[in-house]
C-alpha cells in the first residue's frame, strides 16, 4: 500500500522549482533545478527592501516548502538595515549569522549542515535586470560569482544609506 501523503521534505532541489515565486506575502526566489548542485550558486532571491525582519520570513517560508526546515541564514552585515541574531518564522527559530563579507549572497542552512548559496538581487533592481540575474544564478554548473552576475546584468549592489553609482557620480538614470 502506498502512502497517500508523502513527506514534503526533499533531499535535493526539486526539478519542479524553476519559476520565480511571486505570490503576495512570499519571496521572489528561484532555485537551480539540477540534482548535482555543482554551480557556484544554488539560486537567487530578490527582496523588496533592506528590512530583513520584513523580508526573511517570506524567503524562509518559500524555501521551507521545497527544502524542508531552514535552521540558519547567513547574511552580509553591510547589506541590511538591521540584523537580529534570530527570528521565529513559521513557529521555528531561525538563527541569523552576520558577516561583513560584501559577497552579494545569502547562505541558507537546511538541517544541521546542508548549505545553499543564493544570489541576492538588490531591491532597487529593474525587473528585466533582476530576471536576467536570477536566470544567470540558476544556470546549471555555472561558476560565475554573485558579484560578477550583478555586474554582467547591469545591477549594482547597494547597501543601506548608499546611493547607486549613477547618483553618486552626478548622473541620474531611469530606475535609480
Largest sheet: 7 strands, mixed
Element order, helices and strands?
EEHEEEEEHHH
Query: Count the helices. How many?
Result: 4
Structural class: alpha/beta
Using DSSP, what is the number of strands?
7
Strand content: 15-25%
Outline the low-pLDDT stretches: 1-26, 159-176
Q: Outline, from the CA principal axes?
A: globular
Radius of gyration: 16 Å
Average residue pLDDT: 75
Q: Give the end-to-end Cα distance, rounded to a whole number of Å.
A: 58 Å
Helix content, binned percent: 10-25%
Spatial arrangement of strands, main beta sheet: 1-2-7-6-3-5-4
What does this protein look like?
22% of the residues lie in helices and 23% in strands. It has 176 residues and is of the alpha/beta class. It has a 7-stranded mixed β-sheet, with helices on both faces. A hairpin with a 3-residue loop joins β6 (105-110) and β7 (114-120). The radius of gyration is 16 Å and the shape is globular. Residues 1-26 and 159-176 have low confidence and may be disordered.
Note the topology.
Elements: E1 28-31, E2 43-46, H1 52-67, E3 70-76, E4 86-89, E5 92-99, E6 105-110, E7 114-120, H2 127-137, H3 146-152, H4 165-168
Parallel strand pairs: 2-7, 3-5
Antiparallel strand pairs: 1-2, 3-6, 4-5, 6-7
Amino acid at each position: 500500500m502506498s502512502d497517500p501523503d508523502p513527506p514534503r521534505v526533499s533531499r535535493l532541489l526539486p526539478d519542479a522549482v524553476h519559476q520565480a515565486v511571486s505570490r503576495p506575502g512570499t519571496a521572489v526566489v528561484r532555485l537551480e533545478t539540477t540534482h548535482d548542485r555543482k554551480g557556484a550558486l544554488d539560486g537567487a532571491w530578490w527582496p523588496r527592501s533592506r528590512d530583513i525582519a520584513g523580508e526573511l520570513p517570506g524567503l524562509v517560508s518559500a524555501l521551507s516548502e521545497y527544502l524542508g526546515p531552514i535552521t540558519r541564514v547567513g547574511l552580509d552585515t553591510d547589506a541590511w538595515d538591521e540584523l537580529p541574531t534570530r527570528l521565529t518564522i513559521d513557529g521555528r527559530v531561525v538563527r541569523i549569522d552576520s558577516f561583513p563579507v560584501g559577497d552579494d549572497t545569502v547562505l541558507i542552512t537546511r538541517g544541521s549542515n546542508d548549505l545553499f548559496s543564493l544570489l541576492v538581487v538588490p531591491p532597487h533592481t529593474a525587473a528585466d535586470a533582476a530576471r536576467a540575474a536570477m536566470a544567470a544564478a540558476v544556470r546549471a554548473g555555472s561558476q560565475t560569482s554573485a558579484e560578477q552576475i550583478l555586474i554582467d546584468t547591469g545591477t549594482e549592489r547597494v547597501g543601506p544609506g548608499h546611493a547607486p553609482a549613477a547618483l553618486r557620480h552626478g548622473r541620474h538614470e531611469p530606475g535609480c
